[in-house]
Amino acid sequence: MSDRDQLVRMAVERHFIEWAYNEKVENALCLGASYERNVDLLIEKVSFARSAVEAELKTFPEQQLRYAAGLDGAILDVHLEQKLSKLCSDARGYLPSYSRYELISIGMYPDELADYSHWAMRDQFDSHDFVWLSIGLEPDERLVKYLGQAQDTVRPPKLDATLKKEAERRLALITTAQKLDPILKHVKIELAYEWYNTVELDAPIGFQNALKIGWERLQKASKAVIEDTPYANDKAPDPRAIRTLSQIIAAMAIDGYGFDPNSKRSAIPKEIESACDTFGISVTKETILKYIRLGLKDADIGN
Fold first, then answer.
1. DSSP string for residues in 196-245
2. Is the CB of residue 96 less than 8 Å from the CB of residue 38?
3. Percent of the chain scored above 90 by pLDDT?
């Protein structure tokens, strides 16, 4: 880019629109086909209007161009200011209406875009986090408050109508899929990854990669645990070791969590599953209940 072209660009950003040269970001928000058309139309219209402004600026003498670029601002040129104002005002009038969320997809407000590198290291998502991340936005107090918690008396913020509709649709979708922990309202990243691959849900490539990275990380960790187990490479585990471990699990469930051996249904296996999640241990409540029952049987408890 020549020095003169650089001055033209500086003048365009200073007088027309500061984001006149921005392009769609890789992880643009996913808010439906209509939203995507609006973003593409905005980029197209900005490009057309910008070209008109550039063409006029290129006719300016060097001194006027430097002034327009803000390099000689100490000397006020009222006539030139009026000319620039009229030129850029006419150009902006050609642009379609747009929202903050269209600007996010072309690089404005980058802090509001999801930080997928961070979320890929999480083992589970809050349901509200999952919704905003699948759209492309970084979950923050303002957005999470919008989707609402019953005890929250603070009025949620007003959101763009398209964003509001899409967020509510995605929350309903994941809730209906029954992938959420009914108590903690969390969705495990491995379940989220497997479920996402079975549904038609548009999401930024960064979100898809974060789920995959998280899934692969947990699979690798789980494999490492298995390989470190003393009987991992044996043809069959020692039945006595399994019985002993089952009795230990049953004893912990009764003494530590208040498990009732005579109860046909209990929330204790779910509590133990949640505790395991906290320490990064991937195990289901069904597996926990299986070994509790095995331990009770071997120890002749509750009979």
1. HTTS-----HHHHHHHHHHHHHHHHHHHHHHHHSTTTTSSS--HHHHHHH
2. yes
3. 36
